[in-house]
Amino acid sequence: MNMLISSMAISSAMVRRQSAHTRAALDETRMKELVAFTARSLETDKPVPFGSSIVNTRSRERLVQSLNAVAREFDPSSHAEVRAIRRATKKLKNVSLAGYTLYTTCEPCPMCMSTALWAGLDRVVYGATIEDASRHCRQIHIDAREVSARSDMRCVVDGPLLREECYALFTHPNMLKAFRSWSTRKRTSTKA
Ligand SMILES: [Zn+2]
Fold first, then answer.
1. What's the CA dihedral at 60, 96, 148, 30 to 10 degrees?
2. Tell me, what's the pLDDT at 19?
3. Which long-range contacts (CB under 8 A, 24 or more apart) does 175-182 make?
4. 81 C-alpha to center of ligand 1: Å?
5. What whole-number percentage of the chain has pLDDT above 90?
6. pTM for the full model?
7. How many CB atoms lie within 10 A of CB 29?
8. In this predicted model, what pLDDT tens digit does every residue of 108-166 receive, in sequence order?
9. Which residues are part of the catalytic machinery?
10. CA 14 – ligand 1 centroid, Å
């Protein structure tokens, strides 16, 4: 009996390990797709390194993906995450995004992380960090994990994932050039 219980425990641990492995592989696939989607903006007149997608946590099906549109919309709150959340809730006609995961090329700022919490997202997975972004444009230095930890909501924050690939969006020559016209630019960006 003990052997049976211990072998059951082993197999359930294996399943957990396998599902964690599968989840990590799926996270990478989703993030790579998001990097490719965001990179397309680098060839436009308003390049941005910030992209977000919202994916069904169970089926892994993508619901929406969005880019930062602060410059396009003359709206300082048009961050990629906020836009993706707005699109997703409108599409579902539901203010709750429980059952969904948000992927983002950069760690969400406090505004975006708060919006993710208000939306009830299961999980947030980010690429580059706030510190990475801060080399090029001004940031609010509060970690996404801290915003989540101080809330009454439950949202797992994972990252950095594919940090180099995501950070490469910031250092692309077209992006470095574009940062020069950003009102939130940092001096370091003008060196490129
Ligand atoms: Zn933000």
1. 20
2. 81
3. 175/42, 175/47, 175/48, 175/49, 175/136, 176/136, 178/46, 178/47, 179/136, 179/137, 182/71, 182/137
4. 6
5. 82
6. 0.88
7. 11
8. 999 999 999 999 999 999 999 999 999 999 999 999 999 999 999 999 999 999 999 99
9. 81
10. 37
Per-residue CA distances from 57 to 47, 54, 62, 109 (Å): 29, 9, 9, 22
The C-alpha atoms of residue 166 and residue 104 are separated, in whole angstroms, by 9
How far away, in angstroms, is 99 Cα from ligand 1 center? 21
* Per-residue tokens: 143: 């970690």
Q: Separation of 83 CA from ligand 1 center, angstroms?
A: 10
* Helix (H) or strand (E) segment spanning residue 124: strand 123-128
Residue type, position 46, single letter:
K
Burial-class residue 118 by CB neighbours within 10 Å (0-12, 13-18, 19+). Answer: middle
Q: If you search the block for the tokens 């990252």, which residue do you land on?
A: 159
Describe the crossing of helices 163-171 and 2-39 by its angle, rounded to 10 degrees: 10
What are the b/e assignments for 102-117, b being 16+ CB within 10 Å? bbbbbbbbbebbbbbb
Q: What is the largest CA-CA distance in the chain?
A: 70
**Ligand 1: distance of its center to the CA of 122 in Å?**
18
